[in-house]
């Protein structure tokens, strides 16, 4: 499985490298999409086995331990399954599924139709302040 995850990160790097205007990609524990992109599917092979990497970006409209729903820029919604092995990165630091809340920006990475392997969330300052205040 580590080969698939490593290869999926490499596939994301190739994707970004081929897009004009894309300037950076942070592979440390996560996925990335070029600015303005909300969805990408990348098909690739590892040890002669086909795999599909799926990246999605949007605003979280609902979240639970089992999954989350993202509203993408075009107004469409996508449901992303989560599992106990899903890695969460909240504002650049390790987090937990329980930190995923409505109103946060998220980028998810899934492989072969499985649950998200990584969810990167950005907590807007106003929401962070409300969370800190205990609301």
Q: Which structural traits does this protein have?
A:
135 residues, eight-stranded mixed beta sheet, alpha+beta, single chain, 19% helix, 2 helices, globular
Mind sketching the topology for me?
Blueprint: H1 2-18, E1 39-46, E2 49-63, E3 67-71, E4 77-81, E5 87-90, E6 93-95, E7 105-111, E8 116-122, H2 125-132
Describe this structure in words.
The protein contains 2 helices and 8 strands; from the N terminus they run αββββββββα. It has helices spanning 2-18, 125-132; strands at residues 39-46, 49-63, 67-71, 77-81, 87-90, 93-95, 105-111, 116-122. Strand 2 and strand 3 (67-71) form a beta hairpin. Strands 1, 2, 3, 4, 5, 6, 7 and 8 form an 8-stranded mixed beta sheet that branches.
| Uncertain spans | 10-31
Nearest-angstrom radius of gyration? 15 Å
The structure class reads alpha+beta
Q: How many beta-strand runs?
A: 8
**Helix content estimate:** 10-25%
Please summarize the sheet with the most strands: 8 strands, mixed
Mean pLDDT: 81
Overall geometry = globular
In short:
With 135 residues, the chain is of the alpha+beta class. The protein contains 2 helices and 8 strands.
């Amino acid at each position: 499985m580590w080969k698939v995850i490593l290869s999926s990160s490499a596939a994301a790097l190739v994707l970004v490298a081929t897009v004009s205007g894309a300037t950076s990609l942070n592979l440390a524990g996560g996925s990335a999409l070029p600015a303005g992109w909300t969805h990408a599917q990348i098909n690739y092979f590892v040890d002669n086995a086909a795999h599909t990497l799926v990246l999605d970006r949007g605003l979280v409209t609902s979240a639970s331990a089992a999954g989350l729903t993202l509203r993408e820029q075009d107004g469409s919604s996508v449901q992303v399954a989560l599992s106990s092995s899903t890695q969460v990165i909240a504002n650049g630091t390790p987090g937990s599924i329980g930190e995923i809340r409505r109103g946060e920006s998220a980028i998810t990475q899934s492989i072969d139709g499985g649950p998200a392997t990584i969810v990167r969330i950005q907590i807007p300052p106003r929401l962070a302040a409300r969370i800190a205040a205990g609301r």
